[in-house]
Amino acid sequence: MTDDTTVTDSARRVLAAIADLRVAELKMLRRETERSGLKENDLAAMRLLREAGLAERPIGPKDLAAGLGITSASVTVLLDRLEKRGLATRSARSEDRRSLRIDATEAGLEVMASHDQPERIRALAESLDPHDAHVVERVFRDLAAAADTVAPALDEGSGERYRRA
C-alpha cells in the first residue's frame, strides 16, 4: 500500500469515494437481505441464476460455487434453501444426465426484480454519454478485479484515511 504522503489529492478523493460506495453498497445489501429474508449468498446466487438465464447459459452447482467463492457442500445447502422457498430448481442436464442444471423459478425472478437497481442509480447510468459510460464501466470492472484479488475487512470508516487533507 502507498504511504498517505504519496497519494495525490485527486487520488485521495477517488479512494474516499470508492470507500463511500462500498459502505453504501453494504448498507443496500443489508436492506435487501432484511426485506427479502434471503441470506447474502442466496441473493448473489439468484443474481447469477438470473444472469445465466438471460444469457441462455446453463449453470450448475460448480458454476455457483466458483461464482460465489464457496464450497460444493455450501452450494448444496444454499440450493436446498432456495428450492424450499420455490426460488430455484435443480434438474438433470439434457446433454449429460449425471450433471445438474440450476434455474431460477418465476417466483425467484420476481424476487430478483424487486432487488433491481434503484431508479436513481439506473437514471444516473442512463444519463452518461457513451464515452463517460465506457470510462466508468472500465474503472468499475478494474476495481472489481482488484477487489477480487484482495478482500480486506470493510468497516464504516474504511475511507477515513483518504479524507485527511
From TrEMBL:
One of its GO terms (biological process) is response to stress. Coiled coil: none annotated. It holds the Pfam family MarR. Residues 4-145 form the HTH marR-type domain. It comes from the Bacteria. PROSITE patterns: HTH_MARR_2. GO terms for molecular function: DNA-binding transcription factor activity. This is MarR family transcriptional regulator. It comes from Herbiconiux oxytropis. The lineage of its organism: Bacteria, Bacillati, Actinomycetota, Actinomycetes, Micrococcales.
